[in-house]
């Protein structure tokens, strides 16, 4: 095919994907080309702007490594991560809502007993976190695996702190027979997402701030239940309505209550959705 024009190039490119054996891949590539071309037409993209876009994505790639995931940051700040979470976590009313995973989850977090201090030396004001894990019928989910991670008082996660070599302010607990959990940690504080790279440049150029409201990350897993990836956000935080990554849900906002000894307490109960029935099976009892 020669002499393609701006009017027929889109169809020509889509036709080139027609033999893709994987139907889902064919659908995705077709739609991607359609929308990319529509975008270029919509803004009448200049060659200079196209090249600046290529340079931007090149910088996103260059700064990405094992500890820094600029592509996830880009997806988060464009709202794509939260859109994907929202589309894929349409749970029944009463279930705890999901939100973004974020780039600071690390596998292999240490396991703790109830009441232990998961801060493990991370800087911050002392805080107790407690609550229950239940199912939609209000029954305790005994043995649920509860993983928590959070930033310290300086707004950094342990993985961001050069040469630390140990887990801080992250850990795994197992819910008790009544579904209960409790642990000690540090006060959640608002913090800026990493903004010393191309995503930070994009935020500054568009007069956006990089801040996330204070939160704890949770991942909760239990057999027969859908894995829940979510946050608990600190009520009163000034960034609740302008989260840089669009992750706040009203139902996830909780009060951090100052205790007489100056420490903090936050209580939050999680409600897990039942796992989707395997093909050919009815809903679990
Ligand atoms: C976080 O909450 O850890 C996070 C989420 C998205 C982008 C950056 C950080
Ligand atoms: Fe976070």
The small-molecule ligands in this entry are: benzoic acid, fe (iii) ion
Number of strand segments: 12
How confident is the prediction overall: mean pLDDT? 95
Computed structural class: alpha/beta
DSSP helix count? Answer: 6
| Radius of gyration, taken over Cα atoms and rounded to an integer in Å | 22 Å
Unreliable stretches (pLDDT < 50, length at least 5) are none
Please summarize what this structure is.
The chain has 285 residues and is α/β, with parallel strands linked by helices. It has two domains: 9-65, no CATH class; 74-272, Protocatechuate 3,4-Dioxygenase, subunit A (Sandwich), CATH 2.60.130. It is built from six helices and twelve strands.
Write the topology of this structure.
Blueprint: H1 9-16, H2 23-43, H3 47-63, H4 70-77, H5 80-88, E1 126-135, E2 145-149, E3 170-174, E4 180-186, E5 191-192, H6 198-205, E6 211-212, E7 215-221, E8 228-234, E9 253-254, E10 256-258, E11 264-267, E12 270-272
Parallel strand pairs: 1-11, 1-12, 8-9
Antiparallel strand pairs: 1-4, 2-3, 2-7, 5-6, 7-8, 10-11
Bound molecules: benzoic acid and fe (iii) ion (FE).
Benzoic acid (BEZ) binds at residues 73, 76, 100, 102-104, 193, 212, 245.
Q: What does this entry look like structurally?
A:
- This protein is globular.
- It is built from six helices and twelve strands.
- Helix 1 packs antiparallel against helix 2.
- It has two domains: 57 residues, no CATH class; 199 residues, Protocatechuate 3,4-Dioxygenase, subunit A (Sandwich).
- The longest helix has 21 residues.
- By secondary structure, the chain is α/β, with parallel strands linked by helices.
- The strands form three sheets. Strands 1, 4, 10, 11 and 12 form a five-stranded mixed sheet that branches. A five-stranded mixed sheet has the order 3-2-7-8-9, with no helix packed on it.
- The model has no long low-confidence stretch (mean pLDDT 95).
- The structure holds benzoic acid and fe (iii) ion (FE).
- Fe (iii) ion binds next to strand 7.
- The site of fe (iii) ion (FE) has 5 residues, from strand 7.
